[in-house]
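With this grant's support, we have settled on a layout for protein records. An illustrative entry appears below exactly as we store it:
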Amino acid sequence: MTKIAELKKRLMHSPQFRAEYEKADAEFAVIEALVRARTGAGLTQTELAKRIGTTQSAIARLEGGGTSPSLATLRRYAEATGTRLQVSLVAE
């Protein structure tokens, strides 16, 4: 049986796979940062939703990757969790 790490290493040689993997990896990094900010602030999804002016289900979709947040949403999320939004573009 092939181990996941070995499979990933082999697949990363494909430019198409690498591009899709990096795209997904970036999306997961955003989701992880959102959840980390909320839990670091000691907030539940419901409490955060009240601070932002939305619903708990909207926060759940955002943290679950079900929606792509706008910069305005990310700014409100950061403010509500006592964090600062930082966006950067990196040359390939």
Notes: The two ends are 34 Å apart (CA to CA).
